[in-house]
Amino acid sequence: MDTELFKDQYRVATARLRGYDYGQNGAYFVTICTRNRVRYFGEMEVSAQDWTRAYLRPTPLAAIAAAC
Predict the structure, then answer these.
(1) What angle do CA 19, 14, 66 make, to 5 degrees?
(2) Cα–Cα distance, 57 to 46 (Å, whole number)
(3) What superkingdom does the record give (predicted)?
(4) What is the mean pLDDT of the chain?
(5) Contact of 5 with 22, CB cutoff 8 Å
(6) Confidence of residue 61 (pLDDT cuts 50, 70, 90)
(7) Are 16 and 22 in contact (CB under 8 A)?
(8) Distance (Å, rounded) from C-alpha 63 to C-alpha 57?
(9) Burial 29-55 (b: 16+ CB within 10 A, else e)
């Protein structure tokens, strides 16, 4: 980043965990923000039996995105 151009005013602290190897295999969550918070890719469902389990109920558009 060109510090002369932005004069460090757009710098934010990293959200990465120190010492964690992000190159290793693992599960990652990706957040996609859409205009007016429209849920193009589906709705999150939480299990009635176990509230710690959640999954995405995808829309037809999500299936197209997954195929690509």
Answers:
(1) 90
(2) 10
(3) Bacteria
(4) 81
(5) no
(6) very high
(7) yes
(8) 11
(9) eeeeeeeeeeeebeeeeeeeeeeeeee
Residue 7 identity: K
6-23 pLDDT per residue, tens: 776 777 778 888 888 888
Q: Which two tokens stand for residue 51?
A: 């509230």
Counting every residue written for the chain, the total comes to 68
SS3 for the chain, per residue?
CCHHHHCCCCCCCCCCCCCCCCCCCCCCCCCCCCHHHCCCCEEEEECCCCCCCEEEEECHHHHHHHHC
Given pLDDT bands bounded at 50, 70 and 90, which one contains residue 2?
A: low
Name the token pair of 1: 């980043």
Structure tokens at 64: 């197209």
